[in-house]
Amino acid sequence: MKVFIVAHALLRAALALMPTLISPLVATSPALIRVDGSVDAMGTGFSIVAYGEDRGRLQTAVAQGLEEARRLDEMLSNYKPDSEWSQMNRQAADRPFPASTELFELLSACVQYSRASEGTFDISVGPLMKLWGFYKGTGHLPHRAEVRGAMSLVGYRNILLDPSNHWVRFAKRGVELDPGGIGKGYAVDRIAQILKDQGVQHALVSGGGSSVYAIGAPPNEPGWKMDIKNPRDPSKPIASVVLKDESLSTSGSYEKFFRAEGRLYSHIMDPRTGFPAQGMLSTSVITPKTIDSEAWAKPYYILGPLWTAQHKPKDFRVFFCEDKTGTRCEWLQ
Question: For the whole model, what pTM was predicted?
Answer without folding.
Answer: 0.89
